[in-house]
Inverse folding.
């Protein structure tokens, strides 16, 4: 695997202002992403896991500037995406694409599949009509569909087939990095494995890097090289896949693993988290996880732990 950082996120924040009352006075900020830092190397798959509402999807959209960040830096090949103007950002999106959880969200029901896959080529003025048609045919075959389906409309396909079309569309302009936001969570289990295997094959063939967002640990274990665990807008643990699954250090990571039947060790009881994820509008003081933590200490509700490197490549934010 290459050692060069393709993407570097530095202290990224995304806050949403909340207003209240007749005068719409500011009541606070929802801290969806709150000081997140990590890197993705060339040809690497970085898995990102956490409960719903932890900020994973907002982070993915902010990297693409589909959401404007509140603060921080997003460096792609050393260039800060936040500082790019509209023209420069459009050029950058040739190299960074997104695959959405709901494939219908990226497919226009009025357009044929062929036209949807071709659209990025038209937008970026790549190739002539003949070259585009050939590229579309190649992509359709690469994602395991019949080339004749180019003339069909999205409603004529199953969920798994639509996601294949979404993958083909993302690959159309030869990106270097794909943000995959829960790409299989809306699919039947029998179809999920097919799509995941397709994404692995595509990653190897095209030399891609992925930010792979999911809440299913088995999916992350199948796909990722390294894993980031998020909780309430912050990273609580980061390590290689092998290290994280064999030696989880944060109590939240331990609880996630204990709740997954395929990772539960013999003789270990499941750790049941109490309550729901707190509101990002009013997070708990100190460690945000302490109200639900089975190993909380007095310091946990007073001081927020920093994300520190415990061993080579293994970072954790925990007073323990």
């Amino acid at each position: 695997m290459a050692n060069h950082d393709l993407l570097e996120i530095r202290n990224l924040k995304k806050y949403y202002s909340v207003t209240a009352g007749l005068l719409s006075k500011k009541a606070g900020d929802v801290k969806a992403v709150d000081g997140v830092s990590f890197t993705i190397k060339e040809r690497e798959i970085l898995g990102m896991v956490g409960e719903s509402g932890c900020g994973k999807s907002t982070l993915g959209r902010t990297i693409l500037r589909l959401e404007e960040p509140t603060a921080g830096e997003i460096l792609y090949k050393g260039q800060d995406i936040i500082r790019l103007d509209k023209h420069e950002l459009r050029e950058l999106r040739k190299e960074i694409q997104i695959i959405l959880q709901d494939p219908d969200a990226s497919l226009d029901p009025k357009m044929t599949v062929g036209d949807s896959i071709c659209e990025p080529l038209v937008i970026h003025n790549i190739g002539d009509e003949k070259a585009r048609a050939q590229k579309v045919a190649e992509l359709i075959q690469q994602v395991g569909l019949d080339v004749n389906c180019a003339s069909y409309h999205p409603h004529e396909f199953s969920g798994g087939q639509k996601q294949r079309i979404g993958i083909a569309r993302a690959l159309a302009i030869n990106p270097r990095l794909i943000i995959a936001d829960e790409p299989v969570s809306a699919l039947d289990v029998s179809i999920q494995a097919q799509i995941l295997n397709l994404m692995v094959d595509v990653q190897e063939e095209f030399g891609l890097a992925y930010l792979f967002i999911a809440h299913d640990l088995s999916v992350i274990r199948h796909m990722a090289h390294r894993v980031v665990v998020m909780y309430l807008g912050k990273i609580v643990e980061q390590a290689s896949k092998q290290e994280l699954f064999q030696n989880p250090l944060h109590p939240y990571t331990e609880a996630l693993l204990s709740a997954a039947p395929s990772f539960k060790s013999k003789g270990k009881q499941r750790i049941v988290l109490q309550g729901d994820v707190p509101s990002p509008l009013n997070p708990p003081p100190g460690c945000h996880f302490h109200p639900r933590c089975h190993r909380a200490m007095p310091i946990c509700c007073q001081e927020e732990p920093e994300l520190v490197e415990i061993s080579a490549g293994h970072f954790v934010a925990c007073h323990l």
